[in-house]
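Training component of the fellowship. As part of building independent skills, the fellow (R.M.) carried out the full modelling exercise for a liganded target. The chosen ligand was phosphoenolpyruvate. The inputs are recorded below so that the supervisory panel can assess the work.
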Amino acid sequence: MRKKIVAGNWKMNTTCQEGMELAKAVVAKAGEVPANVGLIVAAPFTHLCCLSEVLEGTRVELSAQNCADHASGAYTGEVSVSMLKSVGCQWTILGHSERRQYYGETDEKLVVKTKLALEAGLGVILCVGENLDEREAGKHFDICKTQIENVLFNFTAEELKSIVIAYEPVWAIGTGKTATAAQAEEIHAFIRKVLADKFGAQVADDMTILYGGSCKPSNAAELFAQPDIDGGLIGGASLKADDFLAIAKAY
Ligand code: PEP
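Fellow's submitted model of the complex:
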């Protein structure tokens, strides 16, 4: 049985103090979420050290939102995977569309970052997804396939066990426009087929594939009921503990 996960991506929101309060509020009611659903919060770098204390001994795991593409050295402003590990991080998001769009994140860089993260013992939430033009041109299958091939095909089946995919149609992120459950399921099933063709059916079947894009308490249950949707990467709605937990409870 593959893991079900609901992960909150706080993006560049909350002060450190607000983040601690938010994490405490999540922890306080995390017991209401079915035990088989993994909970992750992906916070800004500045919050991670304090948050790891808040989350220690709880079921809520800690993620970064990015990492450097070098192990250490003269890279001013960057944060390495060993730094993330040293503050108790268990995961990092990589390849979020906002990083691809605004910070020149390429698939080549993502291969390097994923390798560094896995070597450091971090799990990776790798985001893929098409933008609106690509969707309207009917290229969404090709775009997702290429992103998966360019990054994940450089890793072994064993390494894939530490990677979760998040399918996030860019046109649905922060826009209030959710992909319909059928649209999301169609791509999730397709991604699983791409993985099966390369790594075999068992590896593909074990892979956790999350949906992200304006997921909220009112639409989570329908999305999560789809056979190939294994949870969500939640942006805006993860900034309210009750909404985040309501989404996770949708299982
Ligand atoms: C995200 O940025 O990963 C995301 C899914 O955002 P939102 O839920 O706000 O659309």
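The panel noted the following from the submitted structure. The CA atoms of residues 113 and 229 lie 25 Å apart. DSSP finds twelve helices and eight strands in the chain.
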